[in-house]
Amino acid sequence: MINIQLTDEDLLEQAKQLGGHKTQQETIHEALKEYIRWRKQMESIQHFGTIDFDPEFLAEIEQRSKSR
To answer: To 10 degrees, what angle do helices 9-19 and 24-45 make?
Structure first.
């Protein structure tokens, strides 16, 4: 268990109320999950436009979308 000292109790209380959490621990846990999810999303966005797909794969995807 990590013991975290906060310098801004108002910030934690506001997050607790906005999230509808019952405890500070629940609020911190959810905030960390959300932060990690956001950081992973930002990392993924950096790869947009940098991945080259196989032309055969793209043709297959296009063909599948036309057959719908």
So the answer is: 80
